Amino acid sequence: MVAGLTATCSRCVSSSLNLSSLSAALPSTSYGLSHLQTLSQIQQQRSSFSTSSMLSESRKKRTARLKRKGNLDQRNLKVRMLESSKPDVVLGHQTNPAGTKVWQDSELAKIILNKQTVWGVKEDRRGNLVSVSAEEQAAAAKNAFDATAAKEAASIGGPLRLNFGLDGQDRQLLFQDLPHVMVKDRILDSWNLGTLIRGTANQADIAAFEEEYAKVQSEETTNKQSLARILDLRNASGKGIQVENIRRIIAHFGGPSNDTGSPEVQAAVLTYRIRNLHEHLQANQGKDFEVFEKEESAEVSWDFA
Q1: Does the residue 129 lie in any domain?
Q2: 51-86 pLDDT, tens per residue?
Q3: Which is deepest, 64, 211, 255, 271, by most CB within 10 Å?
Q4: pLDDT tens-digit series, residues 227-283
């Protein structure tokens, strides 16, 4: 029994020694906790360093993206401003009301004639012919050429605008000098005038001569009216109106000598032709050009009193 107790005590002592040596071999609890805290701080510092670098990188990307977006917005704004302010490649001015007013106030626009204004009719959206208002016709006649022509037509006769490139001197010749010569020529060949010259005329001969003279004058007046209708620019084709416009350009920009080779005349003629062609293309989209040329060359068959 004593031997059994001794063995049991020796096991207990050896067990206690083993626990003591194990605890001595293991690090203390305070050291383990401090070591764990140190590791935790290092990991936190590392994570903070990693998070800061990620935030810094995303901030740089965002700044670059916003800067790039601002540059693109400015570029698009400049493009829109350029598109809204640049002139039309054909007309040479903007197509907005301000640009149109620039053309309307130019010297060239004030002297050339528009076909619709000359003819007194224009097409509406449905293709029907409607009359041009009196205000539009009056506005188109506010130029030096039409003002002078109106005075000459009132004093001499003939239409407001002459066709075939005729000017004021031709008006004087055709509507004043020629009728006077025709009346004089016919009266000089009259038998009644010979009777009056011979001094053998009686009251009946005088009455016959006066009647014949009035008849000749009436016939010449009718002839003058017929000639006025023939020479009226309203009966001209589109090319006839173009000839009149070029004549006006030469008279206005060519100087006293009507120099057709001057830069002013050449530039004005080219500008007018370009605008005229542009107007044709806009009004006749899809129409065959040969058919369009035939229509432009055809004479207008309207009869103006």
Answers
A1: no
A2: 555 566 687 788 888 888 888 888 888 887 777 777
A3: 271
A4: 999 999 988 888 889 999 999 999 989 888 888 889 999 999 999 998 888 888 877
Q: Cα–Cα distance between 297 and 137 in angstroms, integer?
A: 24
In a domain, 138, yes or no: no
- C-alpha–C-alpha distance, residues 173 and 184, integer Å: 15
**Tokens linked to 62:** 């965002």
Residue 164: which H helix or E strand, with range? none
Task: Please tell me the pTM assigned to this model.
Answer: 0.61
| 215: in domain | yes
**184/178 Cα distance (integer angstroms):** 10
Question: Which residue carries 């007309």 as its tokens?
Answer: 91
Q: At what angle do helices 238-253 and 144-155 cross, to 10 degrees?
A: 110
* Pairwise CA distance, residues 105 & 98, whole Å: 11
Domain span including residue 179 = 167-230
- Domain assignment present for 213: yes
